[in-house]
Design goal:
Strand order of the largest sheet: 1-7-6-4-5
Number of helices: 9
Helix content: 25-40%
Distance between the termini: 16 Å
Largest sheet: 5 strands, mixed
Radius of gyration: 20 Å
Structural class: alpha/beta
Number of strands: 13
Mean pLDDT: 94
Length: 361
């Protein structure tokens, strides 16, 4: 059975840098008073926490003690810059990396955290037109928030395995700066950018070897993009915000135990031991999340790329960013066993085991 492998990958970041001097000293001082209250609420329930949750409480306290939550810079779009243009640029670069023309693609799977319009099929049809794909190349829009890359990879693997396509393009973009309340400390955490990956048929033993998933709807609604206190279609500005802080904390507290679960299941399904993993790409929601996920998965020895301090979280582009930079810098090489792990508010988590490279000619 054919499996999917990444044959080309790219990351495109805007040139504009928003560093920590963007926020006034008074605003930062006001933020510094808030985490103290949330830490008390977490500590009150510490007796019932798992070992990983207690570790996360410590990490949260350490991050909250830093004025900028571990961030130094983030790349953001200018008001007149188009996210679609960045998606197109990333797509073209990924195709160049793979050495293919647009007409060779059988499918496009796209995700835009902030698409041009709501209630459409995302930016996918526009990308399809501008890239010059064949009319019969199907376009799919995947909505899995920060977990969208792995959802796309899963679908691509199934399309290739069932003979419904040989080559596909996966695109992701983050444009949180368009929907942030800059008076909210969460605005520190987000950066903008776009990424893309070309996937094709893998040689035997390469590409996607297994995946595992987890859904926990008990934290649904913790963080949302909407009009605060209302639905997104009601009057007011749509912004990303904590809709229910208790649910948001619960989601963060659960992330290591969930990562341990899905990663161990993915490794077992692939017949691979944790010690064989050479590269780890994890979600980077806040400064400590990728490192804790990696430890929980049992692959602390593996190489990784930390983009968070200088890019903030790139939502669904976090994993492609790590893979792209890792491959470019020689940290990720042909034949390396890779473990992916990411989560998304709501929440879903996924883990994928793959052997890097090995594209079938």
């Amino acid at each position: 059975m054919d499996r999917a492998t990444v044959t080309g990958i790219s990351l495109k970041l805007p040139a504009t840098v928003r560093d920590n001097t963007f926020w006034s000293a008074g605003t930062v001082e006001r933020w510094m008073q808030k985490p103290k209250r949330s830490n008390v609420l977490v500590a009150e329930a510490s007796e019932s926490l798992t070992a990983w949750q207690r570790r996360i409480v410590e990490e949260m306290a350490a991050a909250n003690a830093m004025p900028f939550l571990g961030t130094k810079e983030r790349r953001v779009f200018k008001a007149d810059e188009s996210i679609v243009e960045f998606e197109l640029s990333a797509a073209r670069a990924a195709m160049a990396d793979a050495g293919i023309a647009p007409q060779a693609l059988d499918f496009l799977i796209s995700y835009s955290a902030v698409p041009e319009y709501l209630h459409t099929t995302g930016n996918g049809p526009l990308l399809h037109r501008e890239l010059g794909l064949r009319p019969d190349a199907r376009t799919i829009f995947v909505e899995a928030a920060c977990n969208s890359f792995q959802a796309q990879l899963d679908i691509a693997d199934m399309l290739i395995a069932t003979g419904q396509g040989k080559l596909g393009l996966l695109t992701q973009s983050a444009a949180a700066s368009r929907v942030l309340d800059l008076e909210d400390p969460a605005s520190l955490l987000f950066g903008d950018g776009a990424s893309a990956a070309v996937v094709g048929r893998a040689a035997d033993g390469f590409g996607v070897l297994s995946s595992a998933h987890l859904t926990d709807g008990s934290v649904y609604g913790g963080t949302v993009t909407s009009v605060p206190g209302r639905r997104w279609y009601e009057a007011g500005a749509v912004v990303f915000h904590a809709n229910d802080r208790a649910l948001g904390r619960k989601m963060l507290l659960s992330i290591a135990d969930a990562a341990e679960d899905v990663s161990k299941r993915a490794l077992a399904k692939a017949g691979v031991s944790a010690k064989e993993i050479r590269f780890f790409a994890g979600h980077q929601a806040v400064s400590w999340v990728q490192r804790i996920m990696q430890e929980a998965a049992g692959v602390a020895h593996a190489k990784r790329v930390d983009t968070f301090p200088y890019c903030g979280t790139l939502t669904a582009s976090n994993l492609p960013a790590s893979l792209s930079i890792g491959a470019k810098e020689g940290l990720l090489r042909e034949g390396d066993l890779v473990l992916l792990c990411s989560g998304a508010s709501g929440q879903t988590l996924s883990s994928t085991v793959m052997r890097w490279g090995g594209a079938r000619k």
